[in-house]
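Narrative summary of target 7.
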Amino acid sequence: MASILTALICASEKSANIARACKREEALFQLLIEEKKGPDKNKKFLQDFKTLADVIIQEVIKNDIAEKFPELAPHIAGEESNKFENGLGETITVKVCKTEQGTAELLSKVLEGNLKAAGLLAKCIHEDVHIDDPALQKLTKDIPVDTIGIWVDPIDSTNQYIKGQLEEKFKDGIHTHGLKSAAVLIGVFDRNSGQPIMGVINIPFNEMDPILRWKGKYYWGISYKDINIHSVSKQIPARNQLSIVMSSSEKESIQKALAPLCGERMYYASGAGYKVLCIILGLVDAYVFTGDTTFKWDTCAPHAILKSLGGGIVHLTKALSEPNDGGPRSFPELQYNKPDEGAKDKEKWANTGGLVAYRSREHLEAIINTLSLTVDT
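Modeled conformation, tokenized:
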């Protein structure tokens, strides 16, 4: 268990280094943007971009984990295709080569011969990353490697990462937009049950040091059998009203329905991973989303951490259909091992039907009971 989690954290730290390196050079960053088209396009945005940073990070995570656990290689999946088209119309398959020089030569093709930029990225890709986390040494139990799968979102909230804004005014510690909502998400699930069992969230742009360099922060959690352990505080500040975070594009009917529960404690933020992190950190009590535009790679990692804290993420539509006869209700949690057979392309891995993420069962029931009275969900 400790060796798997350590590998995930090291991969996320290297990924955060790459994300920061790509942002340091604005001229370089402009070269890295490519518009998604066709089945890879997220219908939520008019312009949905993928960046070379996205593709590189996903391939680095897959490569680094597979090096340590070769049997996991066929079971690591993510959001991005590793095909990238440069400005000359050439399609290159991005991968981590055996040597730093080989990776630099490959990336120079994507970057239209920009050897300096390619060399910088290759150096980040091939550098050794080590962590010293005493809490990991306490993890002495084993997880069968032959039963797990991994979902990767290389940069969740890519749109905000591309815009690169720093939100200076924010309320109650919650950023509505900007670099701080960008996250590297690596989630582990049981391939038989579909349950999330381990997650890492890495925030590459967590804070600036005195000389204006970005520093990151990572969070992790494990919920496996009788083990529930994590790197975050379980303390939640006392609040008189339930607080909810949601997307600014959420249906007006849903916002109005939940308003009486929240009062002034209804917040809006970008990035599914970041919104769930707000719950993990105790900034809000729940995250509600009624759309179909979050995916398994968005929620697997934060879901595992929430489970380790006693919370979870339920399938909203199915939860609303559960009969309320006064007895204990069983709300179905999101699963990560099976696609939606009725959907095509990436949509088959969407969390179709919406979701509610929570830390408290009491808060979950209050939200479901309120939404069950709303006709248009």
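The chain has a mean pLDDT of 89.
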